[in-house]
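Chorismate--pyruvate lyase, Agathobacter rectalis CAG:36. Tokens?
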Amino acid sequence: METWYYDVVSIDGDYANLKRCDIESDDLKLVARALLPPEIMEGSRLKYELMQYEII
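Tokens:
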């Protein structure tokens, strides 16, 4: 199973923009906040594994 790491770049209403921080990439991923831990803030670091996001 693969694991990816993201930084929360911005939060806009019910969505958050995430940027991969484990590889070189400028792409942002728009993710519904319902899929993310409720306590995220801009600047939080997340781990995505087994189809779940977790604050690290």
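Strands lie at 3-12, 15-20, 28-32, 45-49, 52-55.
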